C-alpha cells in the first residue's frame, strides 16, 4: 500500500484498536485491565488486536518472571505518535456524532479540553 492514510488505517482501522491505544496512553496495562475497560470486547479479539499492535511496533509486551505470570502492554514511541490521531477522532466524535453511550463522561459535557494523556505527552 503506497498511500499513508491506507497504511495508517491498517494499523488502527480495526474496531477496538484506537481504544486500546487510548487506554495505554495512560500507562502500561495488563490484559485483564484492558479487558475491563473495553466493555464488550471478547478476550480473543483483544488478544488479536494486541498481537497486531505489537507486530506493528505500536506496543510492547513485557513478561515478568512471577507466579502467577504477569504480562503488561505499553505504548512505544511509535504508539505515542498515534495519540494526536486518536485525539482528532475524539474531537470529531464530540462535534459530529450524537452522544449516546460514552465511557468518557467529560465528552458529553461539551468540554473540549485535551485529555490529560495528551497534555503530558506534549510537554
UniProtKB/TrEMBL annotation:
GO biological process: one example: regulation of DNA-templated transcription
Domain of life: Bacteria
PROSITE patterns: HTH_HXLR (PS51118)
Keywords, sorted A to Z: DNA-binding, Transcription, Transcription regulation
Membrane-crossing residue ranges in chain numbering: none
Chain ranges of the HTH hxlR-type domain: 3-101
InterPro entries: ArsR-like_HTH, HTH_HxlR, WH-like_DNA-bd_sf, WH_DNA-bd_sf
Species: uncultured Thermomicrobiales bacterium
CDD domains, A to Z: HTH_ARSR
Protein name, entry field: Transcriptional regulator, HxlR family
GO molecular function, one term: DNA binding
Keyword Protein transport among UniProt keywords: no
